[in-house]
Amino acid sequence: MNNKTINIIYWISTGLILGMMLFSAASSFIENPDGTKMMEAIGYRPYVFHFLAVAKVLGVIAILTPGFPRLKEWAYAGYTFDLIGASYSFYASGFPLKDWVFMLVLIVILACSYIFYHKRLNAKAAGAI
């Protein structure tokens, strides 16, 4: 796979996942009756979503800031835990698959971003980028 393809796949998958994380963070601070019902159904309190929203924004900053590879690893790990935890919370609360399958798609996009982040690092180390 050439470096241009690696960069394109990385930036598309990263843009999608970071865009979704920012959208999720912003929506955590907007009053929404459906969102309130959902929080009650899965047993979460509003402060949990506010905390996660701040963490999501910090993760976006960490991934987009050049350098700091260890911080990027933590951001990717945090997003992974967030998405797996959210998926399981919906599953354990009895929501049908159609209500939370999108989170599984986001996990795949996140994995793609992470894999191609490392492909870019390897290409840079080899002097190809």
Automatic annotation (TrEMBL):
Protein name as it appears in the record: DoxX-like family protein
Task: Indicate yes or no for the key word ATP-binding.
Answer: no
Record membrane topology: Multi-pass membrane protein
Output a single Gene Ontology CC term carried by this record.
membrane
A single Pfam family it belongs to is: DoxX_2
> Main subcellular localization, coarse class?
membrane
**Subcellular location, record wording:** Membrane
